[in-house]
Amino acid sequence: MLTSIKDRLPYLCMLETTPAADVPGAGSPKSREAAMIKVAMVRLDGTVGDDVRLTAAEDMAKLFDACIVGLFLNILTPLSIVEGVDAEFWTRLMQQAREAGDTTEAMLRHRLAEMNGPAELRRFDLFADDVATVATREARTADAFVTLRLGAADSSGPTEGQDEGVLFGSGRHLFVARDQKAFRNGFDHALVAWNGSREATRAMAEALPYLHKSRAVTVIVVDREPPGQNATAGADAVAYLKHHGIEAQLHRAARLGGVSATLIQEARRLGADLMVMGGYGHSRLREWLLGGTTYRLLRDAPVPLVIAH
Question: Closest Cα to residue 232, out of 245, 246, 219?
């Protein structure tokens, strides 16, 4: 639990906690060793989006016996708004922004204090241009960065730039939450999108803790070529997971429209409650212009998404 002594907060995640309950089918010593998510960082900003993010972070903490680190980036008035004004006006605006941040911080500390298990809050006062840089830096000392689907009910400012910054620069994965059922006891069916790329490889490796806590795992390959042209695609990923003690099934899906549309349709049809995928196989600009797979799923994934670059 949080205390009111701010100086003690950075040490709370080092406290020993009670081991989480084993998930059926994933209780071997090997699976427990693989569950290496011990620090779940969650972006908080005092908006309605915090409800979904904190619920996901708390479920993750219970599932992996992890600590929650709330990241509050208090955005000050951009310099461009106050060009040409005197120092007194500038000082007043900055003070107002900090006071508003104090109110939000107090509320966030109260919410974290109500959670079971260790938690801490990190606050930074900064300008909008620095949000992605600071979030990326802080995420490097976490195992997962919990955020929301882009475009979901979330009134914060530079959300998209922050999440992309963490995805590309932190070396950690995003857990993209949505209004979902609780997963503190694990997942029923995880779907791993596989195309043999570096990004897909990274995502599958980052997702191993989640896959060990899933009752069923399916590796899905979306066929871009005629049926039978590459019949062995995905078998290597299934074999890799088996070496990690995860029994996965291989599923080949005919591409109907775009890859993202196919993945969304198959996730719903197969009853998946978690999807794993690599982020941005092409340039971000090309993804944005063409409406690529990453761009679409960050906004429209029907289930929580584990995504890594």
Answer: 219
Question: Closest Cα partner for 214 from 243, 181, 248?
Answer: 248
Measured distance CA(6)–CA(161) in Å, rounded: 29
Q: Encode pLDDT of 292-302 as tens digits.
A: 677 777 787 88
The Cβ-side half-sphere exposure at 230, using a 13 Å CA radius, reads 14
233-240 contacts at long range (C-beta below 8 A, 24 or more positions apart): 233/194, 233/196, 234/194, 236/196, 237/192, 237/194, 237/196, 237/204, 240/204
Rounded to 5 degrees, φ, ψ at 90 are: -60, -45
Residue 230 buriedness (CB in 10 A; 0-12 / 13-18 / 19+) = middle
pTM for the structure as a whole? 0.83
User: Tens of pLDDT along 163-222?
Assistant: 888 988 899 999 999 877 899 999 999 999 999 989 999 999 999 999 999 999 999 999
Residues 6+ apart with CB under 8 A from 235: 250
